[in-house]
Amino acid sequence: MRAILLRIRKGFTLIEILVAIGIMGACLIPVLTMMQSGQQKSTYGEFHLFAHIRAMRMMERLTSFSFNHLVSSCNDADGMVEVLPPEYLNKVNMEGFGEECAVDEYDAPEGVYTIEVTVYWKVPGKTQREGSYTLRRIMRKRSDPLMSDYLLGE
Question: Would you say 139 and 112 are in contact if contact means Cβ atoms under 8 Å apart?
Answer without folding.
Answer: yes
